[in-house]
Write a structure and sequence with these properties.
The complex is a heterotetramer of chains A (244), B (282), C (338) and D (290). Chain A has 244 residues and is an alpha/beta fold. Chain A has helices at residues 41-47, 73-79, 101-111, 119-125, 142-156, 172-189, 200-204, 224-229, 234-242; strands spanning 3-12, 15-25, 30-35, 56-63, 66-67, 84-87, 160-164, 192-197, 209-214, 217-223. In chain A, helix 3 (101-111) packs parallel to helix 5 (142-156) and helix 5 (142-156) runs parallel beside helix 6. Chain B has a single domain (14-37, 68-279), classed as MetI-like (MetI-like fold, Orthogonal Bundle), CATH 1.10.3720. Helices cover 71% and strands 0% of the residues of chain B. Chain B is built from eleven helices and no strands. Chain B is elongated. Mean pLDDT of chain B is 84; it is low at 1-10 and 278-282. Classes of the chains: A alpha/beta (244), B mainly alpha (282), C mainly alpha (338), D alpha/beta (290). Chains in contact: A-B, A-C, A-D, B-C, B-D. Chain D: GO terms for molecular function: ATP binding; ATP hydrolysis activity.
Amino acid sequence: MMISVRDLQVRYAGRLVADVPELDVGAGECVAIVGESGSGKSTTLLSLLGLTENAEISGRVRVCGVDVLTASPKALREIRGARAALVMQSPQAALSPATRLGTLMRRALKLHGRQGNDVDAALEAVVLDREILRRYPHEVSGGQAQRFAIALAIALGAEVILADEPTSALDVTVQAEVVGVLRRLRAERDLALLLVSHDLALVSTIADRVLVMKDGAVVESGPAAEVLAEPAHPYTRELLEALP
Amino acid sequence: MTDVQPLRRSLPRIPDRFAAFGAVLLAVVVLAALLAPWLAPYPLDEPRPLERLLPPSGAHWFGTDQVGRDVLTRILYGGRTSLTIAVAVLGVSAAVGVTLGVVAGYAGGWVRDVIMRVTDVFLAFPALLLSLALAVVLQPSVNTVILAIAVTWWPWYTRLAASVAASIATRPYVDAARCLGVPAPLIIVRHVLPNSLTPVLVQLSLDAGGVILTSAALSYLGLGAQEPTAEWGLMVQQGQTLFTTNWWVVTFPGLAILVTAFAFNVLGEGLRNALDPRRAVK
Amino acid sequence: MLAYLARRLGQALLVVAGVVVLTFAVMRLVPGDPAVAFAGPKATPEQLAEARARFGLDDPLPVQLLTYARDLVTGDWGTSLRTRQPVRDDLYLAFPASLELVGAALLVAIALGVPLGVLAARHKMRLPDFGVRLGSMLAVSVPVFWLALALQTVFASNLGWFPIAGEYDTSLDTTSPLTLWTNITVVDALITGNWPIFTSTLEHLVLPALVVAAYPTGVIAQMTRAALIEESGQDHARLERALGFGETSILTRFALRPALSPVLSLIALVFAYAIVNGFLVEAVFNWPGLGRYAAESIRSLDTPAIAGVTLLVALVYVLANLVVDVLQGFVDPRTRSR
Amino acid sequence: MTMLRAERVTLGYGRRPVVHEVSLDITEGGVGLIGESGSGKTTLARAFLGLLSPMSGDIWYGDRPLRKADLRAFRRDVQPVFQAEALDPRMRVGRSVAEALPRAARSRVGELLEQVGLDPALADRRPHQLSGGQRQRVVIARALAVGPRLLILDEPTSALDVTVQARILDLLAALDTERLLITHNLAVVERLCRTSHVLFAGRVVESGPTAELLASPAHPYTRALRDAVPKLGGPPPQARGRTEAVPAATGCPFRLRCPLAVPQCEQAPALRDVDGRRVACHRAEDVLSS
């Protein structure tokens, strides 16, 4: 089990913003957290890597065998990127503006002692050519930037990808490309993929299981086919009916 | 707590009390200046040659100067001069600067280019020299100082207001107002100006300290307030040779300038954080 | 990028032209007959007429402006009434000393300001941050001329750690005379290996440079801190954290370079401010720079000299802005594509 | 003769054109302008609103080019509904709506708010005190204040959550004004617009009845758009061609991304009628049949 969460509760200044009783993602499996803004889906994902600044987190969170909440900062930094990778919503903004993409790749690999890893293979896996390493973030398209973020994870050898609304800022044709890459890599490399999204239709085409969140709580969860075909909770039904 | 580094955990978090601290300090300075006639232990201009250069004592908290005047009294009244200069300079500079800036920012095109190039010229012109030249031409006095500094200070507000107005001009709510047929001047007054106030307000408080320092410098160079006006810069200039022998004559006016400028700067810094939309520390 | 720089150069030339016009106008504001201003108060009628002819004072104003501009370009910046020397030569002597003082002050300001800014940003809302903010707040609030007097009195007159005034111990002129290259004493002494003058100039430089450096150090520390906090709050800092980088390396290796862009444009601004502040410090420490020259010119209503200093300082400000524009390109690649 | 139309309009900022020679009528039943980021759809919308004057060609308001038309009348007939930040953050929302009304009719603000399903008491609130959906309703109320005949909607619901979006779409569908809808969302266009035009790199590549256009696209880009949209429980969306390829400067702009590109595509295809559709593609017939 790549990700195992029990009774996760995240509070900002005492206010409960995310309450997830149970969440498991196995190798090669794709689990999606669906919900509208303010549902706590992103907070849940970020807390798996301890990236929610100034938040009080309780419960048990195990990622790649490491208990995130009790791990030492050093142990936590070791799994970040190298074993569990983050893909963010706004591709360009997620890349340091004054650093060439190649430099970022090199620094990340060096940090985790993985300079030897095959960068070219990682770029090929996301259909990018080497030339992109010389470019700055503002010199590449949104789709390229997002695929580069995935290439970073592959190059570092991550087994888990946490994707926080990876394509909501992209055009629909570009989204199809990025989601296609994620789907292929999950299969080829047996990756565990946790996808956060507000787009039920997109989730239905890629997720094995789905959690539906509203105002911080999980209102329904189960196999994607079942939940989306016969939703048990009225809110899930409302979400489905709202699709234009 | 997960991502907190061991180093950070040991250092206590200090709440951001800057704005409050600055406001209190400033209130004290302003009150002292306003209530000078009541607070001052001695009448303003009453030289007592017998009590020349007395060190700080119960009778004269800040001692007396070369002609026996009570230093504390002159500092209180000097506060009035400095604050009047600051308020007058910033009032004129902001009025002229923001008006030109907002028009330049909103209109864009050649209008903006002309205004901005003229602004650049005044910015490139050494402020102190332009002030000196004006002070020489108009005979040194407090009004001359106000005009001299204002002439070199308005460009900062033009540049600030132009950049803020230019970004507001592209906002959808301005487009919506245009689509309603609202004429440009009304759009500027109703939408552009109110939304430009925050950055200008912050800049005003940050600049107040700078104006006080510059006016004191002009007086120090003998181009601002003239004897017998009580003005901090002048007091430092007159007492500069006494630094070793009678330190108080020079030190207290210097400290008065420092404290006032400091109060304005702290308030400005606090305002900048308080009013900056992205201030919320995530 | 080249198109952008070309446009900036064009704008700079326009600004310089504007400054020339403004200087010309301000000089004409000086009361009294311009001929007196050029020929001196005790000039005889013949000298006045000669000055009137030589400076074309009877021509219409626009013509006078053009001749004035032409003279400036050809290097004839007029003759100082006080020193009776061409203003250009006076400036050639005085300007390097100011450059030396302001240059040293800026080096101190950058060497202190940037690291303090990084320290404060790294420990945001904690003791070091509070200390740096308080310190920089004091540095930008202190009156320069008062600080100059205070340091001079305490460290020079009373403790005697540093010389009271002057650029270097003039007795050394005889024992180990300095050969001039750049006319900046400390640089020439370094190049020609004249150690006695080099050390003496450094000793004389400490106090005045520290005073001039006070404001720039404070404002650079504040700007660096604010820019770093802004930059490290961006999304990319979160991805860097998610890649396993620690806070310190995020600040120094990813956030610092983009954050330097606003700091750089600030340095051009602060450079100009330092030249002006230098005037006051030069007066206190009797530093043979532009400040002292300007102060004396003003006292004696030496119009050509005042105009000369004004134009020179304005030129330096415009040049500093241009240099910063070029540097921006290296610091932040986004500006390169503007 | 339609109330508003573009005739061979070229638009741009500074000297660089972003929209090239577009002709387009705002016909009955809602007109959809479909395109992705950088397609020029917002620029075109601003031209239709009279906020941007064309570099060449004209926007016609009735029988006169907009630049010579009676702007007061135009302002009463045509109003925008923008996506975000359409309300002055410092102004109470009631006051923003009142800005559209003559001084005498300021009392109608409450009535207008009710018309868009809002409690009139909200008039005293500032935009940040309202939800996204409420803010968008205020924007619609302000647009309706002048009694427009045509609403130009630029991505009116893409910043909203899907449940809120559904209710705003219901509100827009119920309005009896004509509409020009600018969006990247095919489903929203299908719901509100009888005819649609697909825009790529500042050029109309296909126009026609929305339902037919989406059911059987005649241009490769329209098909790529349609296939990329995930459908609930449907097949995984297909990515076609390399999306980051920059639009070609010469010939057909889509050719560097087009899976059906042939040498002939180096000559720019003109818009032509194919099976009741106007399409700019040499191989439209192949696209229709496959």
